Here is the input.
Amino acid sequence: MDDTLTIIAYILAMPFLLVWGIERAVRYCCVLVYSISSAVICRGCGQEVALLGIWHCQCGFTYRGHLLRPCPVCNRVPKAARCLHCRATTLLIER
Ligand SMILES: [Zn+2]
Ligand SMILES: [Zn+2]
Here is the structure.
């Protein structure tokens, strides 16, 4: 009896688990694409936002390279890139 309920609950939850899994996979792929791109398109003005350059981490460490590289001091990865033209931020990693 308990097994039947578990199986029914699993079958009912299946579509949600599937959607959640696909959503996670798509998000993961977006981060992968961003991490090998040199620029993203700003959602505010449509201009290119460079991901390669000199970055200043919140911990104070300044480094040259790709924006999505973890900081060697605090291991933080920036979640957004700021456009230099319109100052709007584009989310790179959505939570
Ligand atoms: Zn912009
Ligand atoms: Zn840092």
